[in-house]
Amino acid sequence: MHSLPKLINALDLEDFIHSFEGFLARPKDFIFSGDRQVLVQFLQELESTHLSPLPRLKNLQTALTHLQKFGVLSFEDIFEFVKLVRYFAYLKRVIKERTPHLYAWLDSIQIPPAMVQLCEIFEDDGELKSGIYPDIDGVKQAIAHTQRHISQAFSTLLNSARAYLVDGQIHYINQTECLLLKAGFNNALKGIIIARSANGFFYVLPQNIAELKTKQSTLNDTLQSLLYELCKGLSTSLQKQLMFLRYLNKEFDKFDHIYARHSFAKAYNLEFVYEISKGAIVLKDFCHPVLKNPKPLSIEIGQKITLITGVNAGGKTILLKSLLCASLLSKYLLPFKINAAHSKIPLFKNLFAIISDPQNSKNDISTFAGRMVEFAQILGEDNFLLGIDEIELGTDSDEAASLYKVLLEHLSHKNCKIILTTHHKNLAALMANREDVGLIAALYDEGKRCPRYEFLQGSIGKSYAFETAQNYGIPASLVSRAKEVYGEEKLHLNELIERSSTLERELKQKIRALEQKEQVYERKANALNENLARYENEYARTKADLERTYRNALDELKKHMKDNDNKNIHRAINTANAMLKSHKHPQRDTHTTKPHEFKKGDYAKYGQNRGVIIEIMGKMCSLELDNGVRLKLSLHQLKATQKPINARKIEATPKPNTPINVSLDLHGKRVEEALEELDMFLSNALIAGFDEVLVYHGIGTGKLSAAVAEFLKSHPKVQSFGDAPMNLGGFGAKVVKL
Predict the structure, then answer these.
(1) Rounded CA gap, 495 and 487, in Å?
(2) Number of C-alpha atoms within 13 angstroms, CB side, residue 168?
């Protein structure tokens, strides 16, 4: 169960994996080593790059061991290293900076000059280039010349000994060229009888051919001796590059994994799931590789434990295998049929599948006992995906439901995800009330009496055992008798279990929705209470101000009334009126007034600037100021105004007597006052053409700092902002880029 080959076999992926391995340049395990994210970056860059396939290479581990022990490599092994180096030299030439990760990786591989020189002595087919080693060239020419003489000699003998020839062919006996001749051939030529045919004829090596063969053999011995000396020297050169060759051999396998995956995906129109989910398994249009013309699967598995229930042969097992299969292929970055852009799969450290029946005559173990052995091996693991098919298999369903409930609850405390199938409702009913348990029902077409291979999340599926049996050939009479034995009451009980579990889950969902609404309403009520308290405080303060002003005016009047001087009384009345008029009434809260509805062409005011609205985009608008500057603003930032009768163009630059600073100090100001000044400051800075300004807000309680940051986030003309350097205010100031 813990071995990967067994998992691949359980998920029916052997043929798919074997098909992929055919794209590798040399045999190896499909599991890659190294950082998965690096492979993802390389694969993404390969999608826009055209490269020649990797050369077919032998496994060079044995050759590297020989070099380590100062052995002499064969001519063929040396050329394998040449092919290895040549391919990386090719990659370094064709990979450009537009693929930064591949380029950086190849740029880190520096091919030694000695290896470059070694590559230059070989032809593409592995033969030595002529003109580099004259002695070897001379022996090769002599061998070729001798071979031509042998061919000419055979041609002459075929004509001169025609009367004794059994056929006009040159035969090979014990790898020796000879002629098949009749008796008396010695009257026409001299030669050595090598063997006799079944018909009594003679296989003869002519004497002159034998002499040429001897010469050729001597030349071949000489050539092999020269080649051995050359291989000895080349092996010595390779020994000096042993560390580099080991590294390059490892990097070749790394790139082989990447390029094979890229080629495999391209050949079969497959996709990679690069995005790693932190929780849910999200599959969109997934197709299991073993199925022909499958129905694409789209599903999301978010809960920690998922129970797949319903009809037998309704697709429960294939759904389970599909989820495990997608997780396995994604883990090892193998492409498959899926809509990758809308799919996300967690990266599990381990994947376990309890699918097959462990009972057989060899291991002398029962089905249930075998499953307990497999479960026991998992209990100590962490960070895994576990799939279990027909969980109650092999024992009483009621007992199994209780046992597996405890086991699943124990595993739920680990970092894992568990998916299981069952056609018994006991376990589903026991687990349905848990928040971390999800239910999926395999649907059945009762009219056609066949499974629909569709799945409904959030409910328990019926088993349809009687319908399935009848559909597969069991007589209706026997099915009817089985229903009688089963009993109507149990049928109704199962329906009640299904219905109650579904209703319970629906009720919990509604309760959660109501709790969320209640939280929203509670926040609104708190906000209203805060507003009410603020208004009451403002009312009390205003009332106290009015009363104080009234008392002061009345005291002033009474003081002069005592003098009975009409002029002083009249003056006192005027003074009292002036005091009352000097009291400013608080402005009405702007939040209580209905916002002005602007339309295209309206004249509006932004801070101290005026302009005309030239375009409205939802809650945003484009405002052209009187000075010709265009701003993109939120409508709530504008105030309605009328266009002046003699409106004049405002100069694009500020007036000389209106200084505009690149900094604004908001220390000690209330939030409302500070934001109004900040809005005005930014408007003036934009008109003045400033790219960057400095706003001092201080640290204090943090209330003003938070308000300034929130305002800057929402301002349409603020590109970015951050804390100022320590010499310019540090955390108590913001550098704002416009």
Answers:
(1) 13
(2) 6
- The answer to whether residues 323 and 283 touch, using CB atoms and an 8 Å cutoff, is yes
List the structure tokens of 484. 């009688």
- Quickly state the pLDDT bin for 488 (edges 50, 70, 90): low
Q: Is the dihedral of CA 723, 726, 728, 732 positive or negative?
A: positive
- The residue type of 351 is L
Q: Which residues of 59-82 are buried (b: 16+ CB within 10 A; e: fewer)?
A: ebeebbebbeeeebbebebbbbbb
CB 706 within 8 A of CB 731: no
Please determine, for residue 498, whether its predicted confidence score (pLDDT) is greater than 50. Answer: yes
Q: Do strands 437-445 and 305-310 pair parallel, antiparallel, or not at all (unpaired)?
A: parallel
Contacts from 538-543 at CB under 8 Å and sequence distance 24+?
Answer: 538/586, 542/585, 542/586
For the segment 386-406, the average pLDDT, to the nearest whole number, is 80
Task: Give the 3-state secondary structure of 211-252.
Answer: HHHHHHHHHHHHHHHHHHHHHHHHHHHHHHCHHHHHHHHHHH
Pairing, β 176-181 against β 202-206: antiparallel
Q: In the predicted model, is pLDDT for residue 593 greater than 70?
A: no
How far is 371 from 386, CA to CA, in rounded Å? 13
Size of the chain in residues: 738
Percent of the chain with pLDDT over 70: 82
CB 25 within 8 A of CB 53: yes
Spatial CB neighbours of 278, under 8 Å, sequence gap ≥ 6: 346
Torsions phi, psi for 447 (to 5 deg): -70, -45
Q: Which of 21-30, 126-135, 565-574, 694-703 is the least confident region?
A: 565-574
